[in-house]
Each structure stands twice: as C-alpha cells, then as structure tokens.
Design a protein that fits this description.
By secondary structure, this protein is mainly α. The chain has two domains: 187 residues, Clc chloride channel (Orthogonal Bundle), CATH 1.10.3080.10; 186 residues, Clc chloride channel.
C-alpha cells in the first residue's frame, strides 16, 4: 500500500510532461532558443580552443629546437617561469578543483583563474611537460559557461548544465569526438555514479558538436583519426577474452601509476618555499628524463605515432612506460599545468606493444588499444567516454573490445580514485560561494 501523502507512481512524471507540453504549446520556440544558446556557447569555446592550439603550436615549434642535455637548462627555466606565473597570478588549480566546483559550488567555475591557467599551461605543454591541454581547455571553457549562465540569470541546475556544456566543448575540441567529449565532461565528475548530472547531457552534446566544427575548421584536427593504428578485425570470440586480459594489464599499470603519482606528490609537498622552487625542481627532473629518453617529453600527441611506426625492443618499451609514468607524475605534482589523459593513452600504448612483442601471435593493435582504455579508465574512472574517445582517436571499428577493457579498468581500479573529489556526490553537496 502506498503511503497516504505519497502520490501514486507515475503521477509526478505525468505532471512534468503536461507542464513541458504546456510550455512548448505556449511558446514553441523555447527549446529552439536553448539549443541556439548551447550552440553559441560551443562555438565560442571552439574559437578559444582553436586560438589556444594555434599559440601552443607556435611555442612548441620554438622550444622543440632544444634537445639533449640543453634541456637541463631549458626545462628548469621553463619551470621557474611557470612558478612565477602561478606565484603572481594565483594558483589556477587542476582537474580536481574543477570537479570540486561542479559538486560544491553549484557548477560555478571562477574565470579569475583563467590568466594564470592559460599562461602556465602554455609554458608547461610547449616546454615539454608530460601533460596535455585538456585541463586548461576545460577550466577556461567551463568558466565561460558559468559567465553565460550568470548573464542569463540562470539558477540551480541550469547554471551547472551550462558550465558542463562548455566543459564538454573544451574536451571535444581536443579529442575531436563530440559524443565522447560530452560524456567525458559528465563522467569524470563521479566515482560510482556514472552520469549523475544527466540533465546536462543534451546541452553538452549540442555544445560539443558546435565546438568540434569550429575547432576542426581552424586547426584541421579531429576530422581524421589522430593516431593511425594498423587495421584490426575480430576473428573469434577469443579476442574478447584477450581484451579482458589486456584490460587487467592496463589496470595493473594504473595501480602502479597512482602509486608513483602519490609518491611524487608527497616528495614535492615537503619542499619548502614559494611555488617556483617546486616548479623549477620539477623542470630539472623532467629535463633529465627527456635528455635520456626523449619520448617522455611532451604529452604524447605526436610521440605515440613514433611508437606505432617504429620497432622497439620490449625491454625498452617497459622502461619507457615507467619513465613516462614518472614524467607525468613529476609534471602534475611539481606544479606544471595540464591534464594526463593523452599521456596515459601513450603509456598504455607502449605497454600494450611491449606485451604483444613478448608473446608471439598476439595482435599488437588489439593489445595497445585495450591497454590504453584500461589504464585511462582505471585512473580517471571514465569507462564509457574512454571507449567513445578511443574509438574515434584510433579509428578502431570493433567497439566492444575497447568497452570490455574499459570496464575491467573501471571495476578493478583502486577504491580511492586518484581524483579524490570524484567521491563526492549530490547527496553530500553544499552550496559554497565562489571566492
């Protein structure tokens, strides 16, 4: 028997539908206006992403001229410059801070952090830090979404949805996958609840599509696959079992990466003094790694193609995996700015190719992509969007093996995620004013 004060099941749903139909009947252009608003937000975010990428490429071409042991001078100087930017313009935070803002500040991202984030990330990425542009793009575009919501005087979930739509546009601009970028913006927020802010899904998709078109028109990126893996076709059901095995390998690597990351975090936390001490020392460490193993430099966008097209001994690839994990950890915990999604893909690809090289008969394409999926899903807790992103980035048409590996990575990941703010959910949210 239903409680006395509780309406019968379905009554609230029918009332909501009647209100929605009534709204559309009174003003049939209401939904169209919202779609236009989301598209405009995505267009502006795509323009910014295109400009950011163009500036990044210019800086990259200047700084990539420095190679070998000259990096022992160049990268510490870059670290000093990054630290000075953060010291004088403020700490822009990382992806964990963005997740906190979505949970605890009703989705409001502070645009005052953008100058520090833009300058510090451009220096970090172009100088050779093992961090990609996804974090700065998401911070800046997400804060633009908050600004639009405030100009439109939106409240509550509408503010969060607009911020998430703009964040999705930032993800999509880099990855060139509108659906994957939209899902990633929602999925990375949570450890257990895959898509808690479901109402933001359609705004995120519309904004992502607009951003993708604009960014692709400016940079010519994202139209074709980013990485050109050898073609692969499923031969038997055994391939799904292999995908699970490679997923387990990726999970083990994810556990190792999180251990290295937390160890580096503890070391850098003990360094006294201003932040530029820490960033300079991080630059020295990164310079040493890059001088010995040049493939550890940068975030892996172009370096992964080198791994694909050249033949390396399995032992070298295993060493490169450990060095890259260390490089990512030093970059992020040392105060350099950027994200670790594409660097994790690079790490997984190296590991998968090494495993395939040790065992005759294994398909290296299947091994690399499944390991890439598992390690990223284990660290970021994003199995669905990881599958969508890798399918687009690699042009890997058999969708299911990537999904199997991603789910293995998600379910076998450590209980405490690397981004600890993912543990928060709506039931624990409080409203905190933006500083």
């Amino acid at each position: 028997m239903l409680p006395k004060n509780r309406p019968p099941y379905g009554q609230n749903q029918r009332r909501t539908l009647r209100q929605l139909f009534g709204l559309v009947k009174r003003n049939p252009f209401t939904i169209s206006r919202w779609v236009l608003c989301w598209a405009v937000v995505g267009t502006v975010c795509g323009l910014f992403a295109g400009l950011y990428w163009s500036v990044l490429e210019l800086m990259f071409h200047e700084l990539e001229k420095f190679q070998g042991w000259s990096l022992l001078l160049v990268m510490p100087l870059a670290g000093l410059a990054i630290g000075l930017v953060i010291h004088f313009l403020g700490n822009p935070g990382e992806i964990a801070a963005i997740v906190d803002n979505i949970h605890l500040r009703n989705g409001r991202l502070d645009a005052r952090k953008n100058p520090s984030m833009i300058l510090a990330s451009l220096l970090s990425i172009s100088a050779g830090g093992s961090a990609g542009p996804e974090a700065p793009l998401v911070q800046v575009t997400g804060s633009f979404g908050t600004w639009v919501a405030e100009r439109l005087r939106l409240e509550g979930e509408d503010v969060r949805s607009m911020s998430l739509a703009a964040m999705a546009a930032g993800f999509t601009a880099l990855f060139g996958a509108p659906l994957g970028g939209a899902m990633f913006a929602l999925e990375i927020l949570h450890h257990q609840h895959i898509v808690e802010y479901y109402e933001a899904l359609m705004p995120a998709i519309v904004s992502s599509c607009a951003s993708y078109l604009v960014f692709a028109a400016i940079t010519r990126l994202g139209i074709a696959p980013t990485w050109h893996f050898p073609q692969y076709h499923i031969d038997s059901i055994d391939d799904f079992a292999l995908a699970i095995v490679f997923g387990i390998v990726g999970v083990i690597a994810g556990w190792m990466f999180m251990g290295i990351f937390r160890a580096c975090d503890r070391i850098f936390a003990q360094i006294p003094g201003p932040v530029y001490f820490r960033t300079t020392l991080a630059g020295l460490g990164l310079g040493c790694l890059a001088a010995v193993l040049p493939l550890t430099r940068y975030f892996g966008h172009h370096e992964l193609e080198v791994v694909l097209n050249q033949s390396f001994p399995a032992v070298f690839l295993f060493v490169l995996v450990l060095a890259k994990m260390t490089s990512i950890s030093v970059t992020v915990t040392g105060g350099w700015r950027g994200g670790f999604i594409i660097p994790l893909f690079f790490t997984g690809a190296c590991l998968g190719k090494a495993v395939a090289g040790l065992i005759p008969g294994l398909n290296s394409t299947l091994a690399m992509i499944c390991t890439m999926a598992a390690i990223n899903a284990a660290v970021t807790r994003t199995p669905i969007s990881t599958t969508l992103l890798l399918s687009k980035l690699t042009n890997f048409s058999p969708f299911t093996p990537i999904l199997f590996a991603s789910l293995i990575g998600f379910f076998l990941a450590p209980k405490v995620p690397l981004i600890e703010s993912q543990l928060k959910n709506q039931s624990s949210e409080v409203q905190v004013p933006v500083n």
